[in-house]
Amino acid sequence: MSTERSAEPGPSVPSAPPAISVRNVSKSFRLPHEQYHTLKERALHAFRSRTFDVLRAVQDVSLDIAPGEFFGVVGRNGSGKSTLLKCLAGIYDIDAGEIAINGRLSPFIELGVGFNMDLTARDNVIINAIMLGLSRKQAQERFDDILAFAELEEFVDLKLKNYSSGMYVRLAFATAVQVDADILLIDEVLAVGDANFQQKCYDELTRLQKAGKTMVFVTHDMGAVERFCDRAMLMERGKIVDIGLPSSIARQYNQHNFRRTRQEYGASPTELPPENPAVQIGNAVFESDDGEPVVTADQGAPLMVRVDAHFTEDVVNPIFAIVLTNEAGQVVFSTNTDSQRMTTGHFPAGTDASVRLRFQNFLSPGRYRLTASVAREGLGADLFDAHTSNSIIVLADRPGGGIADLPHTLEIERDPGS
Fold first, then answer.
1. DSSP class of residue 161?
2. Using one digit for the tens of pLDDT, what is the confidence trace for 75-99?
């Protein structure tokens, strides 16, 4: 199947087209200065002149995505990445340019659209699967697989209005992933659900990738970008900053995001990572005790973080720092070589070095993100480089009671006289 949406005539489609072709696409929104919330307000001020601000969400974007390619789209909030995805899905009409989609498309943008809260899971799965393009027979044949993936077999005849938010998301994702689409548009849907289900979603992405599906993946998780994507694109203020290898785009995203954040909080330019730092962080990953990269970890088992750095200039006593944050953005663990009173020594230009952090994993179940940085000797404010990379899911056989589940014992003493 091939569909095209254009605001004006564009170039002819080549004989062997890419899965997705975008040419000079722009999308803007008008934001009124005055908001009318009722019909009465609108009637009372019918002749009042209305003024607008124009938000240029996507500006003159052009790119090609090959069949079978896993393409990442990253950028800060408000950069236009989700708007671009909705333009690809046909949810938004474009103002200018041309979009060509060659293949059957399935958007994973707003899971559960079309679900009826007064119907049971059984009815919703069949109806939603048909809405997503399956025949009734196909939907019925895949029903058991959908329920098994969502782990909701016991609740199949329960109305959706009695589902928890986590159960709802699991059912919606399990239904959507059964669609026989050539092209999948995925917008941060993997950031929901509990840790076990998130890992199932990542495993499903791996399966789809091996099956040769074309995927466009919008995310803030640079670890996922480097793990899954063949190429990635960085956006800012609706424009393309760069398209390239995932490692390069992840590095630019981290540096760009860090510089913006520091500027918003009034940091001076000398405190920001330079464009061409004397030390570059090339990789920051979670590892098992035997040095293998991991994306999940069992609570209570040893866990290790490895940070690789390359020195382009001579540096003396740099400060290496490692921070773990949870999904709420809270710092759950932080350490650096300065606080540990470590003298790191002299690193000549051309040196490669690895920093390893080893700890017993007593984190509560959930997802944690890794940020590594390296700074000049002193107060640690003059950064060479900062890198937000992989995330890890901590698994446990019981729910956590706080940020960490520290080893402990509980005792009860009963007063003999009571």
1. G
2. 887 889 989 999 998 888 999 999 9
396: Cα separation from own chain's centroid? 23
Q: List helix spans (H) across 235-383.
A: 246-264
Q: For 107-239, which CATH class?
A: alpha beta
Question: What pairs with residue 75 in β-bridges?
Answer: 235
Lookup result for tokens 């289900």: 197
Query: In DSSP terms, which residues pair with 356 in a beta bridge?
Result: 306
- Is the domain spanning 276-395 CATH 3.40.50.150? The answer is no
Domains 107-239 and 276-395 share a fold: no
* Cα separation, 296 vs 194, whole angstroms: 13
CA 273 – CA 17 distance, rounded (Å): 41
Q: Helix or strand or coil: residue 42?
A: helix
Tokens coding 309? 């750095």
Strand order in the sheet with 96-102: 2-6, 96-102, 20-32, 52-65
Q: Specify the 3-state DSSP secondary structure of 386.
A: strand
Q: Which letter, b or e, does each residue of 260-294 get, where b requires 16 or more Cβ atoms within 10 Å of its Cβ?
A: eebeeeeeeeebbbeeebbbbbebbbbbeeeeeeb
> What are the structure tokens assigned to 186, written together?
């995925």
Neighbours of 358 (CB within 10 A): 11
* Rounded distance between C-alpha atoms, residue 351 and residue 2, angstroms: 51
CA 276, CA 294: separation in Å to the nearest integer?
30
Beta bridge partners, 385, equal 374
Judge whether 301 and 307 are in contact, CB under 8 Å: no
> What are 256-311's pLDDT values in tens digits?
665 554 444 344 443 444 556 788 888 888 888 777 888 888 888 888 999 999 99
pTM recorded for the entire structure = 0.62
Average pLDDT over residues 88-117: 83
Taking alpha carbons only, the member of 260, 402, 399, 396 closest to residue 330 is 402
Report the distance separating Cα 273 and Cα 373, nearest Å.
10
* Average of per-residue pLDDT across 359-370: 85
Could you tell me which residues come within 8 angstroms of residue 144 by beta carbon, excluding any fewer than 6 positions away? none
CA separation for the pair 343, 59 (Å, rounded): 49
With beta carbons less than 8 A apart as the criterion, state whether 334 and 164 touch: no
d(CA 320, CA 184): 39
Domain ranges of the chain: 2-34+50-68+82-106, 107-239, 276-395
